[in-house]
């Protein structure tokens, strides 16, 4: 069971009651692409909010983390850490903040 944590604006958009943490099965291999595909399939309103509709590249102000590592620039098809695949650690979708 994969655990995915969304930022507040996204779980509110999707009308998720559980404070942003989702849990569901993802078939192996567990990658960023398969996890995000599953999130968007389950919550179609999030299509285009996390990744671009056409290119499926992450949005500029969205970051991905797992096991205290920034995975935002990793290949979307690279396997996620085993702790994430087992559900021991969550896959985090984080809204980045810009400013100066």
Short description:
22% of the residues lie in helices and 20% in strands. By secondary structure, it is an alpha+beta fold.
Describe the structure.
With 100 residues, the chain is an alpha+beta fold. It has a single domain (2-95), classed as Ubiquitin-like (UB roll), CATH 3.10.20.30. Helices cover 22% and strands 20% of the residues. It contains three helices and five strands. It has helices at residues 8-13, 32-42, 82-86, and strands spanning 2-5, 21-24, 62-66, 69-70, 91-95. It has a five-stranded mixed beta sheet. The radius of gyration is 13 Å and the shape is globular.
Summarize the helices and strands and which ones pair or pack.
Layout: E1 2-5, H1 8-13, E2 21-24, H2 32-42, E3 62-66, E4 69-70, H3 82-86, E5 91-95
Parallel strand pairs: 1-5
Antiparallel strand pairs: 1-2, 3-4, 3-5
Going across the biggest sheet, name each strand in turn: 2-1-5-3-4
The fold-level CATH name is Ubiquitin-like (UB roll)
Range of helix content: 10-25%
- The first-level CATH class is given as Alpha Beta
Number of strands: 5
Q: Quaternary state, please?
A: single chain
What is the general shape?
globular
The assigned CATH architecture is Roll
Fourth-level CATH superfamily: Beta-grasp domain
State Rg.
Answer: 13 Å
> End-to-end span in angstroms?
39 Å
Low-confidence stretches: none
How does the major sheet shape up?
Answer: 5 strands, mixed
Structural class: alpha+beta
* Beta-strand residue fraction: 15-25%
N-to-C series of helices and strands: EHEHEEHE
* Count of the domains: 1
**How would you state the average pLDDT, rounded?**
92
Please, how many helices?
Answer: 3
């Amino acid at each position: 069971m994969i655990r995915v944590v969304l930022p507040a604006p996204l779980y509110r958009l999707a009308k998720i009651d559980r404070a942003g943490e989702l849990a569901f099965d993802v078939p192996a291999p567990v990658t960023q692409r398969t996890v995000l595909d599953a999130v968007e399939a389950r919550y179609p309103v999030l299509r285009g909010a996390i990744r671009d509709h056409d290119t499926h590249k992450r949005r500029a102000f969205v970051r991905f983390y797992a096991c205290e590592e920034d995975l935002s620039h990793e290949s979307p098809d690279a396997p996620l850490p085993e702790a994430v695949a087992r559900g021991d650690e969550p896959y985090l979708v984080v809204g980045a903040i810009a400013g100066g």
